[in-house]
Structures
1.
Amino acid sequence: MSSLFGLLRRKPLPGAKPAAAPALPAWAQPLFVSELAPRVEDAGEVLVWAIRDDPSTAVISEQFEAKAGDYHQRYAASDHFEKLFRNGLAGTGIAVAERPLILDLGSGSGVNSVVPCMRLFPGARTIATDLSGELLSILAGYLRASGETEQVVCVQMDAMSNHVAEAAFDLVTGASILHHLERPQDGLSAAARALRPGGHAIFFEPFDGYGVMRLAYERILSEARLRGDPLDPLVERVLGAMVIDAAARTEPDPTTAAFKALDDKWLFSRERITAMATQAGFAQVRFVPHNDGPNLYQLIAPIQLRLATGRSDLSLPDWAMDILKSFDAALPPAFKRVAMMEGTIVLTK
């Protein structure tokens, strides 16, 4: 089987009749106002399209590429995001059109959004967009292996651009995309522009409820110094970095060089999202928190340590866990739902 990376277009044999130019599926053709050209082809099939004469592009790391073909491992995470979509739909009561046309912003390899929506909305047809043709190649390979190539068209493009037709889609999705943008209002405007009246947009994003973890970590770091009971050096560095990260992303100044250098740029407030969405033209803005359990902060800290270090053997001492327990005891689930750390944003045009 041909690699998904570095694929070369097949050259016809001498004297052979030129193959017909590839065409988008009929359902996708009216959804674009710009001309598309093949970006990645294999065995006469277009895996990824691109906007002709548009230089928008991005690359992925060698580490990411090395695991590209491990579909079972990679797409197992889609179960989690499917649950988030289901909870968002149930928590707001919105009704998505039957066999919807979906525009996915910043699809990546499709794990977080495209694949869950394929499961949730039978007959859906999706335009998957990303700056990275390589990531879209991973998605295209998965779709071909699953026999779903007619339902999803992968297009390398800037999702914030105006290459798609206005008021053409029933649903716009974006999993962890807005907080990477210098101007998240551009993402909301792109979604509103693409949606039909009454259509919906669903985004998964981090929120400023992470400020509670910042306070807890600051107290743990101070307590370690007061006790003369130092934390594991790696744990101390991770907690310190998380304090700095939460501070930098809470109401940041987008004009600074430090902000522009951040990959994850925002911890949103409900107020900021509501204001930006209203300005973009959405009639209704709703939020569905992801976590509100009685032991939330005690559960989050070990997860953050593992994600930050890749190690499962690191832990906080008992006295540090008692501090997190005190935060959990002081802040009930109702507060945690308001001061959410992660949430689903559901917008209706």
2.
Amino acid sequence: MPAPSPTEPRSGQFGPAIYADWRRSSLGEITEALEHRLLFDPAGPLEGLAVLDAGCGDGTLALMCAQRGAAHVSGCDPDPRMVERAQTRMAENGVTVEIRQAAAEGLPYADNSFDVVSCVTVLTFVPDVAAALREIARVLRPGGRLVIGDLGKWSVWAARRHIRGWLGSRLWRAARFRTAHRLAQLVADTGLVVSSTRGAIFFPPWTPAARMIASIDATLGRFTTLGAAFIAVQAAKPGG
């Protein structure tokens, strides 16, 4: 079963080995590249900034932030297996990234600690989304940026997951897929100011289709989120 990127959660629902297998697949490579483009474009330059990846999984995004010049990078995840793997990856790559075990609903950081917070493929599986977003808003500095990536409601991927839930998957039965509008509304309810919503992964979970559509996927995402398996929402904390 695919693991990270827009196809599966990064917040400790699967073990690190499944993530590695997914990235070695052609479909995983294509979708993850599109996901990262969608996330890093709104995040903007990271040089000299403090960055948090809330729900960091095996540390892929946190590692990329460190390699892009962020001054301080932190990551947290509720799954101890993911925390251990993320810490190992940082050591293997010779970067300093603080990885801690914690859920998005209870971030172990002081108020106004980060310039950028990412939260990717997490909120779909968080029982109390409002609490998680309040925590993220709390640790953001005034003027800081939030980038959320989550699983879209109206896509072939979502339909497939719903079916798996009906067939007995507890994970997908509990998942909550949202439209871009609903995600933006939840973010705005915390007092953050939403600046953009974009989509990605407009192809079904089939490698030939991914190869055909990947080159125009980013263009589609600038015009609509309908049919997108992955949705990114960018927001900022007032002030600063």
3.
Amino acid sequence: MLENIFRYMEEKGVGPVEAAIEGTHEIGLAVTATTLSLVIIFLPVAFMTGYARRFVNEFGWTMALSIMVSLLVSFTLTPMMSSRLLKVKESGEHARSRESKFAKWIDHSYLQALEWSLDHRARIIAVCAGVFLLTFPLYHLVGRDWIPTDDQNEINASVDFPEGQSLDRTIALLSDIAKRVGKIREVVLVEHIRTG
């Protein structure tokens, strides 16, 4: 949105307020469509079920809502601030003389790298293909898991018993389970907590 408003000011020479109105009106549908397509991608993540739900549920909601907020900002705050704060850059030698040496160096280096890349397309494609192919062996070195790496060496288990079972019978069964688990060689401590 901001780029289109600035383009109106720079290329068409219109004032900031008119540029904000026309620039927003011109690409409003495209911005809305792009935003909704992103929401459609992230919203199903919020409704995932099973084990993955614990890790990605909040992420899906956060992304979907933040994208919707960005749509609201792009149609309200961005045009308003653009109409008040945007200024068209001076053209010609006077504007160039005010640029810092660092900015000129960045600009010059980028243009040189871009020209070299366009003149040596085969090498660039080969490097990109090589980096892509390296991802396969590196993927196995990185490892992947849903469980966080900070393992506390603890396992929690909950047991459901039939409704109406006596308290004595429940305690006896839980004690039996605790004894069986305690006999496993790697287990150091077994605690069972009674809940009402």
4.
Amino acid sequence: MHILHLEFETDSTRDMDLRLLEYHSYFLRKYKLPVLSLIVYPFPTTVVKSPLEEKSGNEVLLTFKFGTLCLWQLSAERYMRERIFCMYSLLPAMGGAGARLLLRAIDEMAECYRGNDLRLSGELLRFTVLLRRAERMPLEEKRQVLERLSMWDNLIEQDPKIQQMRAESRNEGIQEGIQEGIQEGIVAMQGAVLDTLKKRFPHLAETATADIEHITSLDALRPLIAEIAVARDETMARRAIDAHLPH
């Protein structure tokens, strides 16, 4: 048995390998199981190289090996052909992901997760986040796919079980292991917040990364992106982040 730690990274970040090592150590200490650390890069950027080595002079004190997965280098058609459903939510970032393929993927996900609305909502959420940021897809094709997703989003939002579980999640916090798809969606949304912050206020991004990682509610992360985008200065952006931090 192993622990798989996935870290979604949309831009080249200083000390990314050190941050990954920090998480790796945390999971190892908590679960006492081997940890497989993997950085997932949805979009083209500078990729951190493994391994990370800590040295004292010529002596290697620590070697930390981790994996990297560049989604834009993968073939969306291949994963569709082989029906690898666990990768379907990542298809919008892969090569060859056009409207026709993605629309078919949505239908196949709906069929695969029939009767498991919570899993489906998590998969479609991650799918949507990546689609909105996919720059290589023509706007008209992206619009077609987003229209189809909006139909599913309405159905999911109105489902009583989904509403109940999301209400419990807001009241009690995200429980460990409750739903893999939603947790990964949160990570992707945190990345989108950081991307917006880096573009507008790079200095603040360096100091606020840890705070944003502590915001684990989608209801807080969604408006935070817009608030940072319209903030007049770093002070206003900092206040927006503080307002959404859990108490």
